[in-house]
Amino acid sequence: MKLAEWLVTKGIRQADLSRMLDVTQPTVHNWVNRKSPPSAKQMMKLYQMSKGKVGLKDWCEEFEVQ
Cβ neighbours of residue 42 under 8 Å, at least 6 residues apart? Predict the structure, then answer.
């Protein structure tokens, strides 16, 4: 599941997620809009928060290695 989908299903705003993860809201915006991926540490936190719904596979699909 994409991060944007998960946020909508849980009713979590980008600003709320940024506070939960101690990052800026523009950072979360960049993740949601596929401008930059989160760090490995943040990916793990998102995986845990989403109970496995947002995982590494989702990020790999979003950001192809070139």
Answer: 21, 23
Rounded CA-CA distance 5/15 in Å is: 15
9-66 pLDDT tens trace: 999 999 999 999 999 999 999 999 999 999 999 999 999 999 999 998 888 888 776 5
> Full-prediction pTM beyond 0.85?
yes
- Nearby residues of 41 by Cβ (< 8 Å), 6 or more positions away: none
Is 3-62 in CATH node 3.50.50.60?
no
DSSP 38: P
